[in-house]
Amino acid sequence: MVYMERQPLLGNRPTEYDTLRRASIPQVPNLPRGQSLSWTSSYILVVSRVIGSGIFATPGSIAVLLGFTASNCIIFSKYTLFALCDDPTDRQQISLAVGLLTFITIIHGVFPKTGIWIQNLLGWTKIAVVTAMSVTGLWVILFRHNYSGVSQDNLTAFSYDRIWEGSKWSWSLLSTSLFKVLYSYAGLNNVNNVLGEVQDPVRTLKTVAPVAMLTASALYLVANISYFLVIPLDQIKESGELVGALLFQRVLGPHVGRVIFPIAIAISAAGNVMVVTFALEQARVNQEIARQGFLPWPRILSSSAPFGAPLGGLLVHYVPSILVIALPPQGDVYNFILDVEGYPGQLFALASTVGLIILRRREPLRPRPFRAWLPAVYLRILICLALLTAPFVPPADRKGDVHFFYATYAIVGMGVVVFGVAYWYVWTVLLPQMGGYKLDEKDDVLNDGTRITKLVRVYGSDDAGVAPAHVVD
């Protein structure tokens, strides 16, 4: 709700696609133009983003704790190798995950039209897989007495008294569990990214996210119930990110359940990587940051030439994602990625939420197309504060959801934020003071028509009163 109230208040500030269109940048084929997104299209956009790899991967992690696109690359590799190999190695997992990200970067950076066609196909596959999982769950729930895979022990374990046995309730573990839950619902604010393309945006903002959340919650609830009815609790805790594969294997047998459906889940994860990498977030955001002059080599990273695609933005996303996939121990890499993504995000969520309250007090009479419920806003602040302070409250056994130091995710996450602040300070404050110049903005147009902002060094005035400038590349 905070993001929904904030976005319309940005006024003339463009959304990602608005910026792309207003700057007269060459359009990638099939990208939306004008207000072409209906309510139904917006709903599918949100639901397709929400239903990612979380429902296939995080229940096992959450069960243990309570008893970058890199994350979806990891899920793709694990489910593919589960279907094809009996005992995959860490090198195989890393190679397959890196191979997927490399393939998607090449497809979106060199063959954008083909990439959009593939991601649309994979998006429908993803929805079909989750629907199949929900139907399987409903079938198990309705006909469990006639299904041999549901034992009496499973039914007994799936009771309020026994389901919490062995749970751990430390503040630190609860916070990392909540990161997994938040990841499973990532994308509820997805329509904000393309608000300029939405028909009747006020009505859409008010209704799409709640309806999409109810849809995803219903699918997740049915799937989780089927997990507990079919899979023994101990196996759920030990399954890691493969709990979805265990469900299909026990229900549909060793051939269809172990091979076909895990491959389908892997394809679903690949589709999520394609959507997040190019169409919705990473590549376009990175390209727009370069166009505003905040990254080095802006002429290279800002251009859509020669393929009409944000290849520079894709490469900026590619390098750190590869490092995140390859460096952590493979047994902990998925949990670590989700925690690293989630922790610094709470800092920005807290800033946005507090800023929203400040705006309400400064401009109480300003029209707001969407108004967030104030108790929910304060609840969001409390949640952010709880998650940000959790690493400072160590678990009783000094163990988290990884096998190394429990607060590593907070150190890495805040390290990235501190590095960004230090980069800004050195580049825009310290170096200009030491060099005796100021940074000023200069508009420029690339050969392909792309408009960018370049930062120039102004070293004072000459005799004619004109400030000589040096372009910062």
TrEMBL record:
Transmembrane segments: none
Molecular function terms from GO: L-amino acid transmembrane transporter activity
A Gene Ontology cellular-component term: membrane
Alphabetized Gene3D superfamilies for the sequence: Amino acid/polyamine transporter I
Keyword annotations: Membrane, Transmembrane, Transmembrane helix
Pfam annotation, one family: AA_permease_2
UniProt membrane topology term: Multi-pass membrane protein
Primary localization class, coarse: membrane
Entry annotated with the keyword Membrane: yes
Subcellular location(s) per record: Membrane
PANTHER family: AMINO ACID TRANSPORTER (PTHR11785), TRANSPORTER, PUTATIVE (EUROFUNG)-RELATED (PTHR11785:SF532)
Designated name of the protein: Methionine permease
Species the sequence originates in: Aspergillus terreus
